[in-house]
Queue: 2 jobs
Job 1
Amino acid sequence: MNGAQSLIRTLVGCGVDVCFMNPGTSEMHFVAALDAVPEMRSSLALFEGVVTGAADGYGRMADKPAATLLHLGPGLTNGLANVHNARRAFTPMLNIVGDHATYHKVYDAPLNSDVDGLARPMSDWLRTAQSGTAIGHDAAEAVAAARTAPGQIATLILPADISWGESSGPAQPIAPAARKKADDATIKQIAEVLRSGQKATLLLNGYALRERGLIAATRIGEKTGARVTCDTFPSRLERGAGLPSVARMNYFAELAADELKDTQHLILVGTKSPAAFFAYPGKPSDLVAPGCKVYTLATPAEDAIEALEHLAEAVGAPKTGYRVEPARRSDKPTGALTSAAVGTAIGALLPEHAIVVDEGNTEGIFTPYYTVGAPRHDWLFNTGGSIGLGLPLATGAAVACPGRKVVCLEGDGSAMYTIQALWTMAREQLDVTTIIFANRSYKILNIELMRVGVEGGPGARARDMLDISRPDLDFVALARGMGVSASRPDGAEAFCAAFEHAMREPGPHLIECLV
Amino acid sequence: MNGAQSLIRTLVGCGVDVCFMNPGTSEMHFVAALDAVPEMRSSLALFEGVVTGAADGYGRMADKPAATLLHLGPGLTNGLANVHNARRAFTPMLNIVGDHATYHKVYDAPLNSDVDGLARPMSDWLRTAQSGTAIGHDAAEAVAAARTAPGQIATLILPADISWGESSGPAQPIAPAARKKADDATIKQIAEVLRSGQKATLLLNGYALRERGLIAATRIGEKTGARVTCDTFPSRLERGAGLPSVARMNYFAELAADELKDTQHLILVGTKSPAAFFAYPGKPSDLVAPGCKVYTLATPAEDAIEALEHLAEAVGAPKTGYRVEPARRSDKPTGALTSAAVGTAIGALLPEHAIVVDEGNTEGIFTPYYTVGAPRHDWLFNTGGSIGLGLPLATGAAVACPGRKVVCLEGDGSAMYTIQALWTMAREQLDVTTIIFANRSYKILNIELMRVGVEGGPGARARDMLDISRPDLDFVALARGMGVSASRPDGAEAFCAAFEHAMREPGPHLIECLV
């Protein structure tokens, strides 16, 4: 059995049975080994940013890693932007990066590069496979690393000769480190703070935003008067009718700081102290008010849900009677197709157990508000701010959850970074409906250009660099070019009809909205 | 004057007056400063791989660096694959990578990353700007580094507060180090080797492949009997009627080794000792025959043209009478639209001073043979093997050479990595005609899958990972979706008509060829 087969068999044995890939020559033995291990599902993408973003979407929804297969240094770097986002989401992910045969590196062939150096800044665990004897164990360790709470990026560099050479066969799974318990003394201390009657805020992210965490946090808030909020762009937020809802912090730093200005005690639950997304001249980066005390109930690696439940007990919060979102839907919109109409329509029509992937940016900003009383669903955000995540994330979420509708909210500018994902959606007939908010501008940057305080206001040449209307993009043509059926409704009613059709018919759809 | 203005003014003073960009919030002051320095041409791309590939194409044709503007770590990594190719081409290039404000880094905001660590493996010169006092000088040094022979990748990381803060104004240009002279003793030694009558090969790349280098090498070859050849994928090859032509080494290692098997003396001119592109089980990586002696007439950083001319004198090569390619064109093809028909048509119709960008891969492999007697032109190859270079390279070459037709040969699989380049071509109305060889397969990988020697041959699942026909890509739709006029001729005559039309009408065109 060669190294590639040992590797894939080990992965499958460890529960990693999906691999998103864009392989090259140095990965051909890995590709060939797929026929020997049919338990491994392989999914091809035309660009590596789709591969890694899909692994992120898969990991967030499956709560276990997908593997990626990338071709040498350049294939890795093409995927790193979405590895960055995955890392910020604490998504478990295992990147397998092919490299030249060990003895070939010395020739510095055209595709040679410092793969280790390129992978290091974006990897929590990194190893270059050294032998066929060890490759199975390397794989098992890589999976354990990826699964170590709160979820990590593991990167295994696989020289071609280790892949094609003899191996010692697959290795046994290694149990990942158990999620750490939050400290009891800390829970007690925070309970006292909350009972003090002073203004407190619980800030949640990650694992804490699943149903049990939301319930416990809401119980604490209702008992103690503490505000419950979550980061602006959480990795995965369970929400909708029947669940307690938490508001996300504002993206704009001045508004976010305003939200926290009266908070005397800030309790971090699976997250870290909030800072402005960007720095702006003369504005503070730290969003925490002066004098506010900051506590960590649970780090991202700790068991935030258990900590919240213990804290709820400690403050004497009742187990029942907490407020949940009532089921309520807006009416279907009529008239012009505005961003608000799109949001309203989604609120009116989102099916139960949908997964919403949100890279809607400026035009999509209010969509969460329209959907708060829709049937229960998951909402995935762009955690790391690297644009071009949405379509790949939706791809991976759909692979992870075949029975659920995925709705992908995309800005037109954002969509173009990894537009190739549409092809993988068509190839796999994934149940993803992509909604393009086409304002034909990098609109967020127009806002940011004002906010950074350019003297005299931006000139024509600056504004031109944020203008993507010259020429207009035609997303219906782009989608059809990649095998995805698409439409461009000319009003709110037509949008509703297109969206209803997409929710009824399985498979990929794209709806371009000129807003 | 703020740092961004100092930076841009310094660049313009140093002769860097084109900037390809995909900016974000942390680069807004740079963008705003464009209005203050109208001498800087700015060109927007929808994806960073287009930005860096365009800078490569520009640098290869303009013989001076373009700047790029990239947004933080993820924007940089999106561009690194084509930086890799540029580095392998020794293209002068200056990357400006925005970063968070210096004081903001400590908060590890969502988009924070180790920009320096990510840039280092792909940069020959790397600096993070530290102050407004130094930013002008940093820029001047970066340009000098980029222009240092044979051409380098310079990366300047620009924290947002350095960009928006006060500066000391622009700095004076710094002269790059002069191209080193090749060693006289080496020239003498090589002259003796060539006069020995033993079998010798001159292997050229880079600067040596310009007209003067080709002439000198051909004179040497004709006088001494030495074979003259060049690397498989040179950065820029001047060729066509009236110029001496040199054959490129074969891509397939076994054939390349066969070419060199009788060579007793291998003379490197602006390149390094040849190795197989990839390693294959049981096949040698080193293409040099055992016992062959290897000499370096000129390193890539040295003046290869002067060295060749001195060597030609030293071996007593006549100054005139060397063979040049006669002007000859094939007839226009008729019948089915095969790869050969496309190549023949290009040979028949390529206009004088065209720039051919070649990422045609498997189907395009013979196009150079059909065009050897076409009017004089430049041919640019994918030097680093990172796929997704062609369309961006063509974009940059067209910006550098507004009076010349650019013909971009693209594989369908390759085109999809950076398909967003079509939009920049449309936006700038660049005179690029893209020819897509659509075989609906990663055909080169099918060949490589056989060559790497998979036991029992590849299975259905492996072959499926190299199949991009499910669904078929429609490049006419994709091109129109980005504002580029496109057609899909159904035979050789129709292709000729479409190509003639494109050669007549300025602006971007795309022709999809089902081959």
Job 2
Amino acid sequence: MSNRIFGHISDYPEGSWFESRVALSQAGLHRPRIAGISGTESEGADSIVLSGGYEDDEDLGDEIVYTGHGGRDQDTGKQVASQKLTRGNLALAKSKLQGLPVRVIRGSTHKSDNSPPVGYRYDGLYRVEDYWQERGRAGYYIWRYRLVKIIENQTPSSPIATDNPATYLKPNRQEITVLRIVRDTKQARQIKVLYDYHCQVCGIRLQSNAGPYVEAAHIRPLGIPHNGSDSINNLICLCPNHHVLFDYGTFSIADDLSLLGIKGALTRVENHEINIDNLRYHREHYFSIQGEAN
Amino acid sequence: MSNRIFGHISDYPEGSWFESRVALSQAGLHRPRIAGISGTESEGADSIVLSGGYEDDEDLGDEIVYTGHGGRDQDTGKQVASQKLTRGNLALAKSKLQGLPVRVIRGSTHKSDNSPPVGYRYDGLYRVEDYWQERGRAGYYIWRYRLVKIIENQTPSSPIATDNPATYLKPNRQEITVLRIVRDTKQARQIKVLYDYHCQVCGIRLQSNAGPYVEAAHIRPLGIPHNGSDSINNLICLCPNHHVLFDYGTFSIADDLSLLGIKGALTRVENHEINIDNLRYHREHYFSIQGEAN
């Protein structure tokens, strides 16, 4: 086992500043001295450095859209091939799969109001909420990641207050993180009723003592950079298992509602209009086979 | 459709104070003038008032353990029968199932450092993270709820900053909430490897482009008041569907690892010791049939 640490590093709280990549590496916050992603395919990624590599990166502070590595010409920096879901890119995907926290470090060369004026600053832990492929400006595929800041004052694992505030404020936070979040809205509740809590893929209806349970899945995701809408024509009703498989792109949906990647077709009730553009968006960005073939 | 509002009520931000239950009702924050739970079995619960009814209630501020209603003698206040998962109790369970936010109001008679000195104070939105049954001091079953404060500065639904800060800070927050959270720890990752990402109930192994996906379920939950441990002998490896069904107590596990409520038996590898006391805890507090029969 490697001694890779996922989470905070002792003695370097959020906000710690470093003069150089060498200093950052010596502190253990981000060990590689050149690569933007620290991690391995098997363990996941423990940290990233934002230093302005990709023009499409977005940074709202608590939400970041980050681009994977590879496929660029070493001299010109231009994209000359598609990125693969391997090495650091796969490590970051693994961090989502395993629910691992990723340390985010911003460098002064990162084009954002959130960057430090000089050097590098450790800006705390983020979770990889989502990843997908995208056709970049040069026509090649790139892998992109949506990172969301982990709010750490919530639900300490050791909730009994102690006399030592330091202990109370740092309850195992190297280990605990959030793996899977499903948001619910009025529209989500509507679609559940429309399908009477049955999964549109397998037809299952999970029972609890308070009633049936099902999840509403957004076809084109909400939030940057997808900006899918929270409306019925962008929602389908799925059991948790098929929701996971849909979000990871293990299967997708053709325009005629037949399923891609798994057998069968999506069940649809008459008064549920699905926006075909949203299905196309999901196929293009999430469905696994397509991008890998490039 | 009723005009019940889930979420904040306009003009009454968190911290708003009220002299009486009548004033609270007129503001629309908690409409019933006597009942502690506002809501219906079909819609869910939109608000609760903490006013010190049950001696076992716990209040850590951001986490609250709340007791349902019913089964008490009107004169003496003593528990004389088991509580049922009906009316307000079922409404609160429904709020978990549907991921609805619950307004929490603390009254001065609520025994906690967090109570206002006089009157009633609106203390913001909580989600129902969990509910279960428990044998109370008088030997009758009561229903209990774990409520966790919703942190609202995270992931606004309309993430593009506008010139109007008021718009930016209140993005549909009446509608958006968190439905399902799965925490991941080192121990959780260990058990996934132990079962090679197969569900111990149905054997399924969900595939993604970054590897297999499975969830680690705590048998006896973490946190107050259960205080289950985050150790391998308190964990099982489940697909998301069976995780949901286990957490809601649709099925449980006997000491010999046969399943209760559904057919089959839990698969177990030799080097995975399961603490029998944790299985008993789950059966007693979560397995549906038992408490309902009382």
